Every structure is written in C-alpha cells, then in structure tokens.
Give the backbone structure.
Amino acid sequence: MSDTATGPVSKRVFVDKQSPKAYHALVETAEAVRAVAADAGLDRTLVELINLRVSQINGCAYCLNVHTRAALRVGETTQRLGVLAAWRDTELFTARERAALALAEATTEPANAVVQESAYDAARQVLTDDEISAVVWVAITINAFNRVSVMSKHPVRGIPQQ
C-alpha cells in the first residue's frame, strides 16, 4: 500500500471478481430471497429499509449507496431514510416495520441473546411466520453482500452533476 495526495491506496482483491462462481451463487441466493420476501407479502420498501439498516450497522458505503437509490425508486421518502439509523426514536415507522428492523438488527448482531429474544418476541406480535423468515433471510443476504463489499473496498463513485 502506498500513499497518494488523497491518502493511502488500497490493493484489495475484489472477491466477487476473483471468485465469480461463489459470487454468482450469492446473487442467485439474493434472487431467491427476493421471491421469498414477495411471496411473504413484504413490500420492496420494507426490504430496502432492512437492506439499508443492516448496511448502516456494517458500515458498507457501497451497499448504502445502492440501496438508498433503490429505496427512493420504490417510493421511500428522504425523511424516513434520513432518520433510519435512529428509527426507534421516531414515530415514522409502523409497528410492522419496527419489528422487521429490530429483527434485522438482531440477525446482524446475533451474539446478544437478550436483544435477539426481544426482537423475535416483538416480531411474533405483528409478523407472520413467513414474514419473519423473509426478514431474517433478507438480513442474512445483505449481511453477506456487505462483507463482500467491505472486504473488497468497493468504491462509491459520485453521480455527475447536471
């Protein structure tokens, strides 16, 4: 690694490009999970909120960029996106969304059994078994993509100004 005027230059391996067979299997998993979520009745807005919240926790700039744009495309508001990291402190999210976000967070950081049980109990109050399963699978999948992008240091490129 050498330094430039803008900071250190990383020579990370893009693991998705280096091992395309494994990456394509992950993409196929994501496609299956997207179908499971739709079949369970999770709308795309909620799926994108889960993708974003998990990506916030994991510090994945690349996935945050991708899923912010996706959330806006499916009708999510900039207000809700702006406060997503503090969703517990607002009244902008429904009970169903709150339960899904808590379960996604518990899936992302599963070591805390008390938090995990609390999130699961809350989810049981407002989500069906199919919805719970879909939320967990969405969280598992975005966690995997986060790790691919974080470990590869996938760049976030600016959008040209118009």
User: Anything to note?
Assistant: The first strand starts at residue 3 and ends at 4. The CA atoms of residues 42 and 131 lie 7 Å apart. The chain has a mean pLDDT of 93. The helical segments are 15-18, 20-40, 44-58, 61-73, 78-83, 95-108, 113-126, 129-152.
